[in-house]
Amino acid sequence: MIETEALRNQFQRQFEALGGHVFYASNSERLPVVLASAYQAMVDRYLPDGPLQVVYWLNLDLSVLDLEGILGGIRGTQCICWPQGSRQHAVQEKWRDLLAESQVGITGAAWAAADTGSVALYSSPSTGLLPSLLMPIHIILLNQKRIQPSVSDGLKKLYQESETQGRMPPLVKLITGPSMTADIEGQLVIGVHGPTAIGVVVYE
Amino acid sequence: MKDEGREQTLQLFATCLIDLFRPQAAIAAVEVMERRGSTVEFPAAQTCCGQFSYNAGYHREAADLARHWIAVFEAALNNDSHGRIVALSGSCAAMIIKEYPLLLYRDALDRGDSAVEAKRWQERAERVGEQVIEFTEWLAQEKAANLPASLGIGVVYHNGCHMRRMLGITTGPETVLQDYGFSVVPIEDADQCCGFGGTYSMTEWRVSTAVADQKLQALGKAREMGAQCLTSADFGCLGHLGGRLSRRRDPFPVVYIAELIALTDRGQLTVEELQQMAHQKEKS
Amino acid sequence: MAGQLPIDSRPWPVRRDQALQDKTMQQTIQFVTRRVANAKVAAYTAYPEGERLRQRAVGVKRRSVENMEEHLAVFAQQVEAHGGQVHRAKTAADAIRTVLEVAKNHGVQRVIKTKSMVTEELELNRAFESVGIAVRETDLGEYIIQLAHEKPSHILAPAAHKNRAQIEALFDQDAAAYHTEPPASDDILALTQYARRRLREEFLAADMGVTGGNFLVAETGTLVLITNEGNADMVTTLPPILVSVVGVEKIVADWPGLTEVIQQPALSGVGQRLSSYTTMVSGTRGTDQWEGPDEWHVVLLDNGRTLLKDTPFEDVLSCIRCGACLNVCPVFRQVGGHAYGSVYPGPIGIVETPLLTNFEVLPELPSVLCTLCHACGEACPMDIDLPGHIVQLRKIKRDRHMDAAGVTRSYRWWARFWATPHGYRRSIRWARWGQRWFVRHGRIQSAPGLAGGWFNTRDMPPVASPTFHEWWERTRGKGHRS
Q: Which of B61, B105, B199, C356 is a plausible cystine mate for C415, CB 3.0–4.6 Å?
């Protein structure tokens, strides 16, 4: 128990050092409240004006979470669930536009690493990468049990899972801080292609 | 380590640059070593370690100089495995300790010697290399007696690149200076090269000078912070930076580290004395 | 077979003088290299685990390169088992042909790219444009360079030589050409926002993505891409066709090996424990999936790399392109990347360029761009013996008679005289005699021959009277004990 807490604290320190925001829900009942206030804090800070549209997918343990209910009251937020099942080209085009026009992506996570402050996402029929990439704000819902001590441990976990699955997920992505660049005069700027702001809501 | 109570005999390797262009540095080093009870011997057949040629890719030529160097100092040591060779340059010491063994091994093979013969040269180089010690490293091991608390003189110490990266000597010389009462003034990008690079300073003088000017720019800031002289344990770097200062008609004092210590030993260290010492060469 | 590298064919003195006169470039390069070099040191200090990982990473890279062919075969097998296709390219020309063929087969119109040194090596953009395919660099620095029609000046920070005013001018031009709103100001944030907006259109419209690769994992058939901007994620997720051009030396035998090397590019390159985005591609999109390429081609490029196998230079193949050696190099800090004239600048560039091309291009590099300060050797996270290699390359040049005859003669005579005490004394007598014509105000201010260059910018004291040898002889005599 203490170990989990230590890992969570280490993860939080690292993630915040990278410019990310960490929120904590000490139990599942508190999650909706914490998520709502995290969401409110982030949109008010980074997108103070304009309409809000969220595209999301959640890990299975949160499948009962009613995002529409939780966020709908905040500046008239619209919530759209990331599609599941097979795709066709025409639908894909439509989705791409929808994603490109949305402001916030909310996703689950495969695991996180405490020593680097990283979060891992896999692409699968029900878990996608685009909601973590195209919008200015990305919020991750992370079950505290998924925090690994190090990125090596996380990668080991991925490897073991792939052995049971028979293959690696075709796309895996480790997020370690917001999108940034220092390509102009060596000055750090946040939010080049990916999100300007990332937040993690850790829950138990 | 030094055997307490036993008078040590030190073989001095003065280096060609000091021999030709700054003999006062070696004279001062002799004074410093003798004042601490050592017997100093100077194998008079010594010339140059060959690093200029080695770094430029002229390894056959460098090997000729290396073999001569080894012969001279082996003879001077006369099989005394405790004897030590004090080198007045971190760079030359690194050449001998780090580069001689493989240089001579490869050169022997290139000249058609047997592998056994090549290995023998390598081992000779390694053996004599183990007895080489850079001057400030030797000085740091000596107990300093009657040290002045503070001289009130600010110095910038430039650590030569080979001293730092090949011999792994980093803060030692500055500690020595502090022990002797100097205030060591920090310099920006202290670990950056002065641009000398042996014959590189001649063949690519434009780039070499640009690098030197950057060092002098950093030195300028250190001077504003109270530095009154520039010193180093490598005369290659000092000659380069000093030569550039001289061309810019800048009289800022540049002196070899042993000269500073010798002056402190004599209790004569003042800023005026220092300036005079730095510009001695102009009177000659 | 020797590789082909594109070069700046202007002679070294022209490249050098242009660089030394470019004060804007010098200022920016010096700021950037210092910032990153310091960040690297700080990152390792705050993360002791990093050093342990680094040492293990060296072992992983060395072992993977040792059995490169074997691992490449496994890699190809794995990629093909997961829907991808692997192509081997012996030369740059082979690689270009393969990539263009893929594009042609799919009627590709618009290509988006991640930053990749290998595609710079191929001049792939020029190849695309020559067949009428529009190509867009999406790394901010590369995008700037593409607009300026220039080459990168730093492995990790391609536009490190440009300042904001120059970049704003380029973006203004681009905005006019694409009939879009120009950047609001030359503020760095405004410039970045302009790039985000402009490149977003290109990401969404592209029909083929091209990437390089930081690592290839043989065991799982995985390509690993590391970026801070997130552009590699765009390129691997959005377009239906993905082509990855990667040097054969990027191979890592297995997944545990990857876990040990994966943090090194960020730790040593920018001083982060991991870059913002690490993207791993292990095959094409499944039929039930929304993202990822329908088709994935991996082009494994040799272009001279295997020439280094089983030579004393084999460790060069461990390079992870972190740029740490550039950042600490005092010469690079003065002249920037363009002066090298090669795609690969800095210490690694002056070693790799002649080795990959068997000295066919830019043979001057090892001689003219290094003071042998060993800072690169100290900084290299992969323990590549850069200073040692530079010395050896100079020796090879000498052995192949590539130096001017006069220079060679100077070194030969120098050694001939100084290898004996007698010759040494004689040379001093001559120097004293000769220097009389060159001493002014007590200093030597010019000299003929090899040493002449020194005196263009620096003085030297005349040969001392007495020298230390002479002083000793006079005051201590032979066998004197004090």
A: B61
Structural domains in chain B, CATH included, are 9-137 (no CATH), 144-283 (3.40.50.11810)
Q: List pLDDT tens digits, range B167-192.
A: 999 999 999 999 999 999 999 999 99
Name the residue of chain C whose CA is nearest to B53's CA. C411
Chain B residues with CB inside 8 Å of C434's CB? none
- Does C409 lie at the interface with B, CB-CB under 8 angstroms? no
CA–CA gap between residue C37 and residue A106 (Å, rounded): 36
Choose the closest CB to C418 out of B65, B206, B243. Answer: B65
- Spatial separation of the C-alpha atoms in residues C228 and A181, rounded to whole Å: 6
C-beta of residue C265 within 8 angstroms of C-beta of residue C226: yes
Tally the C-alpha atoms within 13 A of residue B229's C-alpha that lie toward its C-beta: 25
How close C345 comes to chain B (CA, Å)?
A: 16
- Taking 70 as the pLDDT cut, the residues of chain C under it are 478-482
Residue B227 phi, psi (nearest 5):
-70, 135
Which chain C positions have a beta carbon within 8 Å of B61's beta carbon? Answer: 411-412, 414-415
Separation CA C32–CA C229 (nearest Å) = 17
Three-state secondary-structure class, residue C430? helix
Interface of C with A in 52-91 (CB under 8 A): 82-83
Minimal Cβ distance to C234: which of A83, A162, A193: A193
CA C151 – CA C341 distance, rounded (Å):
9
**Residue bearing tokens 């011999």:** B167
Residues belonging to chain C: 482
**CA quadruple B154, B158, B164, B165: dihedral positive or negative?**
positive
Residue B202 burial by Cβ neighbours in a 10 Å radius (0-12, 13-18, 19+): buried
Q: What CATH number should be reported for the domain whose range is A2-179+191-203? A: 3.40.50.10420
With residues binned 3-state (H G I as helix, E B as strand, rest as coil), the percentages for chain C, rounded to 5, are 55, 10, 35
How large is the ipTM?
Answer: 0.95
One-letter amino acid for residue B244 of the chain: R
Q: Which residues, at least 6 apart from C375, have a Cβ–Cβ distance to it below 8 Å?
A: B161, B165, B191, B192, B193, C325, C328, C329, C330
CA C136 to chain centre: 22
- Joined tokens for residue B109: 């093979």
β-sheet bridge partners, residue B232: B158, B256
The domain spans of chain A are 2-179+191-203
Mean pLDDT, all residues of chain A: 91
Q: What pLDDT, in 10s, does the model give residues A142-161?
A: 999 999 999 999 999 999 99
Mind listing the domains of chain C with CATH numbers?
12-162+207-307 (3.40.50.10420), 422-476 (no CATH)
Quick check: C310 and C292 in contact, CB under 8 A?
no
- Residue C335: list chain B partners with CB under 8 A: 207, 210
C residues 340-379 lying closer than 8 A (beta carbon) to B: 367-375, 377-378
> Is C229 an 8 Å CB contact of chain A?
yes
Place of tokens 């000596």: B142
Query: A–B contact (≥3 CB pairs within 8 Å)?
Result: no
Q: Are B239 and C460 in contact (CB under 8 A)?
A: yes
| Nearest in space to B9 (alpha carbons), one of B45, B31, B43, B41 | B41
What is the per-residue pLDDT for B5?
Answer: 47
Q: What one-character-per-residue DSSP string does C303-316 give?
A: TTGGGGTTSTTGGG
- Rounded CA-CA distance A168/C233 in Å is 17
- Cα C109–C113–C119 angle (5° rounding)? 105
- In a mutational test of the C interface, the residue from A180, A184, A185, A190 whose CB has the highest number of chain C CBs within 10 Å is A184
Residue B149 pLDDT greater than 80, yes or no: no
